[in-house]
Here is the input.
Amino acid sequence: MIVIRSTRILKVLLPWFSDVSGLTLFPFIILRDDIRGTEEERLTINHERIHIRQQIELLLVPFAIWYLASFLAGILRGKGVQRAYRDIIFEREAFDRMYDADYLKRRPIFAFMRYRRRRGGRRA
Here is the structure.
């Protein structure tokens, strides 16, 4: 994992998400400059480290295809950009577990599968 602090890179890669704190492109974690040394930085790094693990498990291309397909499916279902993003199976795991600094030490392989939706929209 290599951490890069560059708001400029984030703006180039995600121009439509101005409030994003970080992004993972294996093996890089790209963070906004202004969160250095904050609790937000610690949580964002933990969140992005979960994505690193997911990308390792699935390999980068299948992860990217699944991620993008899930996002687009949410948009097509009329969820809106923010809800479609938050409903991606990988994001549900990362947001749910980013507050647990020790999560990756005990995380089972393919743990994101526990976050798939059941009928009725409830978590598994």
About this structure: The CA atoms of residues 100 and 106 lie 11 Å apart.
